[in-house]
Structures are given as structure tokens and as C-alpha cells.
Amino acid sequence: MSNVPDLTAVILGLILAAWLGVAAWAIWTGLAMKKKADATLRQSGRLGRLLETSPALPLLVRSDGKLEASQRLMHWLGFDHLPAHISELHENDRGMGRQDLEDLMQDVNLAQKTGSSFVRAIKVAGSDKALLVRGGLADQKISPNGSALLWVFDATDSEGQIEKLRDENEAARAAFDALSALIEAAPVPMWHRSPDLSLTLVNSAYVAAVDAEDGARVIAGGIELVETVDGFTPADAARRAKDRGEPLERIVATTIGGERRMTQVVDVPLGKSGIAGYAIDIQELEDARREQRRFGESQRDMLDKISAGVVQFDADKSMKFCNLPFQRIFSMRQQWIAERPEFPRVLDRMREMNRIPEVRDFPEWREERTGWFTSPNGSEENWLLADGTHLRVLANPTPDGGLLVIFEDRTEQVQLASARDTLLRVRTATFDNLFESLAVFAADGKLNIWNHQFAKNWGLEEEYLGQHPRVDSLMKKMALQLKQPARISEVREMVRSATTDREQRGGRINFADGRRYEFAAIPLPDGNALFTMLDISDSYRIEQALRERNEALVEADSIKGSFLSNMSYEFRTPLTSIGGFAELLDQGIAGPLTDQGHEYVRAILQSVKRLGTQIDNVLDLSQSEAGALPIAKDKVNLNKLIEDITGHFSEDANAKKIEVEMQLDATLGSAMADKKRLSQAISQIVDNAIKYTGENGRVLIHGSGDVKNAVIHISDDGPGMTAGQQSKAFDSFARSRDQKAGDKAGGLGLPLARQLILAHGGDLDLTSEPGQGTLVTLRLPRQ
């Protein structure tokens, strides 16, 4: 029995020991758990504080829509407390927007059902705060009932930056699109090369320039716009621009659209982006430059040919160009001009050459002229030089800041103006002192100029004429002076014809007081009309007297001609009887005659013959002057005719020991003439030459001619004739020689010869000098 208590005690001890062990283990475990719990609490606190301070806050949405979140998140949404349900996260002026909340609830619902995640940006109502929500299905350890865990980020700053970047991106994209469109629409070829210098982009102008189908084929084929010249390829140009780090410009000939054009090609380095390039067609610019050069050269050639001096200065006041007249006017050498002197130096040189006007203060004068460069308007001056030269100076600033100066020599114009003024004064004085009435009417009929005689003849007052009346009102006053006032319309019509129709007309008009005037209306070169009126009253009276005297002279001449004709016939009858009886006596009909008797009879016959010839000459002259002399034209050999005439006068010439020489050219030929009358005319001249040539003299007969005329010259070395004697040489009743001729009276020789030559359509001229002899020239037409 005693063993039983011991066993009990042992068992109890064991139980107590076990309990003590368990208690110790429990205490140790509790202490460990407490320690672990304290660490967990501390870690939870830190995690809580981390969550509270983290940029992202959790929001747990349970399957029934209830929410679990921190107060800080509610403050982000503008709530003072946590709403119970997700649908309550929207109010009028706080929380989420209605549309954002609806979209978020759809995302949450989809995440709870499918476990998918989402990201959504929302706006907080009533503020500019932006939130970014990232959500998905919550871990089963966090919420095993299909809850959705949302992480909410404060994206206000980042969203602003994102929005800014988005705007910048949109702007950049728009700018890029605009730039791309601009490059594509550019009329000049443009391209881009990658860093390895291969083509990556070309525009439409490039494609059209190389006659390709599209840009892709250009890039694929590496079709270059610019040709390789002397081994220098377009890629080499791009590489050189890349190496230099600056644009490379060059002008090359390029084929654009099948036509050779001069282009300016520019390669622009873009750093790591590659090389850009463009080509500008400058063919028209080059053509314009060449045309400008040609125009400049032609303009300079033209300026060298004008009389005005022209000089041009650049903006720096250096001489750019001057023409030859400028160099001549101011005596400037080409070597000095080649130095491109400045404007003040040019003025100094002009002063040295004494080619500027006299001035008191030359530096001030030079400074004023230098101001021409900045003058808003052109300047004009007149320079009077020391040698009397008048220069008109025109200075005009050019748009490029330079100056163009023109020097026009107006010396001659000034002299002409002075001469014109003098001429006007002389004209006025001449007009006023003329006996002829003068008036000038303008094209509109106004009286412009008149002289005192015009006012006096028409009885017009100077004060009235000074009003320059029109022709209509003036003629009304002038009509009062006429014998027939209605005839003033003729004067008015003539003035109108001279100004309007440019016709010259004239006439005569009688004044009431008996004066007679001859007037005319003459068109002037300036469109005006000159009305002139001459007093012919005295001339008219003299004319009437002369007319009456002429009628008397004509009647007396007619009586003279009839008398000569009748007397000639009356003389011929007894003269014939005398000649006949003298011939009978010479033949011895009345008995034999002594030698002296025969001599007397021969003298009577010679005188009868000469007197008969004179009577025939008188008749021929009378008929010739009356135009009734018959002329029968036949072909006459002039050489033979002259030889016959010379032989006829050989005895007379030999008696006075006169040498008669003939020089008959083969061109003298023949003419259609009346042989008798022509022989009579030449004989009269030869007879006169022998008659008035002294002993041992010389008579020359020269004959020549052309196709139209035969010319015969008959000259002698006689005493010659004075001017007065020559004027009377063809007068039938005047002496034909000077006083040295003695009692040799001038007969009908020259007058008759001239009338006979004129009757043949020819002409007879006489040339003579006292002591030099006389030359008579006959011109006879062939036909």
C-alpha cells in the first residue's frame, strides 16, 4: 500500500515536472511571441507610416463594393470621412467625376471577375489634382473574398508634366508634319542623307527633277540630282560639309526636268541626324546677272556718247563710274579715276582744275555738297565757271546710299536764250517799224501778236488789242473800216483756214477811205496763223499808169513792126531795080565802061546785096519776135555747115589778116534744124567776130556735143565788151560794141542770131571782158 502513494507521488511529481516544463516552455514561447509581436507591431507601425507617407495609397474594394482605405486617401479625394461604398466616391464638388467613377467601377468589376489589372487616370472634382489608379485582384491572404486592391498615386505633378510633354509632342508632331508638308511642297529639290551619306528622304521636286516615278525608287536606286564633276561626287560634298561642321555651298550645272540649269547646291550638316541638302535653280538669276552686266555695259557706252557728264558714287562716297564727257569737262585722267577717289577729293580736284564756281568758303561749300548723299530729295544747281561755262548740276541720292551726279553743259543754251531774247526784241522792234500790218492768231482764234501798223490801219486801240480778243469780235470792229463791210467774212475765213486747215490764202480789199490793201493768211509751224496786210494804194495807182503806158507801148510796137515790114517791102522793089540796072551797066548794055566805071558798078551791086541782106534780116527778126518765123527741120551736118560758113567769110578774114581756126570735135555730129536759118544765125556771129576783130587777130570756132545737145563756141580776141554793152548786145537798135568800135554801128547780128537759135529750142550766151575778147556759145538740141 505504501508503494501506491510513492507511485502516486512519482506520477504527481512527473506531472508537476511536466507541467513545470510546459509552463516554462509556455513562458519562453510567450516571451518569444511577445517579442515577436512587439517586433511585428513595430514593423506594422513602420509599414503604416511608410504607407501614410508613400506616394501611392491602397484602396481595397470588397466584392460587395465596400471600401477600406486610409484617411489620407480620402483627403486626396476631398472627403472628411471614408465613404462606405465605392459608388459614394462621387459628389457634386468633391470626389471623382461621374464619368471617371463609372469607368473605374467597370475596371474594378472586371478585375474582381477576371483578375485582370488596369491603369486609369482620374480627376478630382473641385481641384486640379490628378490621380493615377493601378488596380487588380487582391491577394487571398489580404482579402480572400474576391476583393480588388487599388493603388492610388498622386499624379498631379507628373500628370502636368505628362500633359506638357503631350502638348509638346503634339506641337512637335504638328511642326514636323508642317515641315514635312513644306519640304514636300517646296519648289526646290530637297533631300536628307543618313550619317553614312546615303539618301533617306527626297521631296517631290527632287523626284520630278530626276524624272523618277516616286521617292522610294530614288532612295532605293541612290539617284543623285547633281552629277559627278572631276571625280567629286555629291557624297563627297556632303562629307566635306560634315567634316567642316558648316554648310557647303557650290554652283554647278544640273539637269532638271531634261534641261540644263545652273543651280546653287547647299549641303547642311545636322550633327548625328545626318546631312540635309537643297538645290536652288539660279538659271534665271544668272541670266539676269548677265543681262544686268550687258545692260550696265550698254548704259556706260550710251553715257559715254551723250554730251552731259555723269558720275556715280558708292555708299562709301568712292567714285564708282564716270563717263567720258565728265572726264573731258573736268580734265580728269583715267589713271587718277582708277584710284576710285572719294567725293570730297573729286571736289578738291575740280577746284584745282578751276572747274567749280567761285565760293568764299570752299570747305563749307564742299561739306554742303557732301550732304547730297543724305538729302531726302534730289538737288539742282547752276554753276558758272571762270571761263564762262554754264553747268546745270543734278544730284540724286541712289537707293543703295550712293549718289548720282549729272553735269549738263548749258553754255550754248544760255547763249541761245540770250540770242533768243535779243531776237525777240529785234523782232518786236522790226514788227513795230514795218510799213506792213502784221498780226498772229492762235489756233483758238485769239489775237497773240500785232504791230503798231496793224492797230493804226484798222483804227484799233492798243488797250483793246491787249485783251487778246478772238477773231470774231475783232473782225466786227475791223469791218467798220471796209468799203464793203460784208467782205470781212472773207478775212475771217482765211484766218480760220490758216489755223485749222493749214492752207495759205490771200486777197485784196478796199477800205472806205479809198485805201487798197493786199492781205494774206499764212499757217505758221507752231500752229498759229500770220495775218499780213500791205498797203498797195500807191502801187495800184502806179500799176494803172503802167498798164496804160504798156498798152500804148504795145500799140507803138505793133505800129513799129508794121512799119518795118511795110518799109522792108517798099525798099525791096526799088533796090531790086537798082541792082538790075547796075548789072546791065556792068554788062555794057548802055555802052562800054571804063575800069573805074566797072568798079563803081561793082560797089553799087555790093551795097545792094548788103542792103538786101539787112532788109531780109529785119523781116526775119520781126517774124521771129512775133513767133511767126517758119522753121523747117531737117538733119543737118554741123561740121560741114560750119566749114561752108567759114569758107564764105575767108575773103573778109584774109583782107584783115585774121586767122580763122576751126576745132570741130567728132562729137559735134548733126542736129535736126532749119539749115538756112541755122546758117544765117552762125553767119551773123562769125560776121560780127571778123568785123570787130582788128588786123592780125584770131577767131576760133570750137564744136562739140553730147547725146542731147550740140555746143558751138565762137570766140575772138577783139576789144571785148563792158557790162553795159553786154546788156544792150541783144537790143536790135543799140550799139553792140564799146566806144572803141568807132563808127561801126551795132546791127541785127546778135539779136537775130539769138532769135533764130531760140526758134530751134536752143540757147545763146555771150561772155565778154574789155580787152579780153568775146565768146558766144550756142547750144542746139539734137531733136
Automatic annotation (TrEMBL):
SMART domains in the record: HATPase_c, HisKA
User: Coiled-coil segments, which residues?
Assistant: 155-182
Q: Which UniProt keywords apply?
A: Coiled coil, Kinase, Membrane, Phosphoprotein, Transferase, Transmembrane, Transmembrane helix, Two-component regulatory system
Q: Which reaction does it catalyse?
A: ATP + protein L-histidine = ADP + protein N-phospho-L-histidine
Q: Which Pfam families does UniProt cross-reference here? A: HATPase_c (PF02518), HisKA (PF00512), PAS_7 (PF12860)
Stated EC number for the protein is: 2.7.13.3
User: TM spans, by residue?
Assistant: 7-28
Q: Which domain of life does this protein belong to? A: Bacteria
The record's section on Gene3D superfamilies has: 1.10.287.130, Histidine kinase-like ATPase, C-terminal domain, PAS domain
User: Taking every annotated instance into account, which residue ranges of this chain make up the domain Histidine kinase?
Assistant: 566-783
What is the protein named? histidine kinase
The species this protein belongs to is: Parasphingorhabdus flavimaris
